[in-house]
Amino acid sequence: MADYKDMIKGTINKVVGKVKDVAENGAVREVIDNGVDKAKAYSKIAKLNIQMNGVSEELKRVYTEIGKLYYQQQKDSPEGCFAPLFAQADELTQNIMDISDEIKDMKAESDDDCDIDVEICDFEDIVDATENDGSDEPRD
Fold first, then answer.
1. Backbone angles phi, psi at 79, to 5 degrees
2. What is the pTM for the complete model shown?
């Protein structure tokens, strides 16, 4: 058995020696540095993507504001390709107003007939009452 121990020890020593050689030559350091550089680059890319998305949302807001202002200025006399879009905007605005009126009417009706009594009680009381309803004998 001593021969196997010596063989295993020798193999381990050779492996350790190779690892030391690789570490001393900087190969491991180079791999680590490359990994760190890539991680930094991906982090920077993620930050830039977030920044770009924020700027894009701001641009959409500006375009929307431009469109609203143009619509308000030209709604009485739309020209060219804007005419169908103005008509669509008018139709959608009317639809919103109709729905809003319907909601107001429903709220007014429900406020007039508000005769609902709400009883607030303990959860345990409800459970006990339900259990008692299901049996012939009352429970304690």
1. -120, 145
2. 0.47
